[in-house]
Amino acid sequence: MATIMEMAAEIIAAHASTTPMSKDELLAELTEVHTALASLEKGEVLEQAETVEDTPAVSRKKAFGKDKIYCMLCGKGFKTLSRHLKTSHDMTAIEYRKKFDIPRSQSLASKNYSESRRKMAIEQGLADNLAKARAARGKKK
User: Fold this and answer.
1) In the predicted model, what is the mean pLDDT of residues 109-118?
2) Mean pLDDT over residues 113-117, rounded?
3) Which of 41, 69, 75, 86 is most buried, taking the most CB atoms under 10 A from its CB?
4) Residue 85 CA to its chain's centroid (Å)
5) Residue 111 main-chain phi, psi, to 5 deg
6) pTM
7) Alpha-carbon distance 106 to 8, whole Å?
8) Of 121, 95, 120, which Cα lies nearest the Cα of 108?
9) Residue 105: helix, strand or coil by DSSP?
10) CA quadruple 76, 77, 78, 84: dihedral, nearest 10
11) Is 132 buried (19+), middle (13-18) or exposed (0-12) by CB count in 10 A?
């Protein structure tokens, strides 16, 4: 079985392979992970670190770009946010809007993506089908 230091080193190596870190950050994180693993081995209950989720990772102005929309929780960019919020943060779009005071009129999709979807719908005649369905419904009343 691996020692606690070896496990901590593996965890930090995996994290450092995807995230650029300075030497001081590596040492600090190694110490923190080692301490947590040692506490777990002793059977102690770990106190969960308070996350700073109240401050957005990205400003609202930068979050809503033309090509990408950035998650204000983690700072990653996407074409649309709804699926990311559900899978990564277990949050609905309504909860996300409420947390960061985003109005309902603000789309959670990039402007270019929304525009391309709109053009595709017009080309396929989806608006015509909607108009026909509304007209048919109006005649029934």
Assistant:
1) 93
2) 93
3) 69
4) 5
5) -65, -45
6) 0.53
7) 43
8) 95
9) coil
10) 20
11) exposed
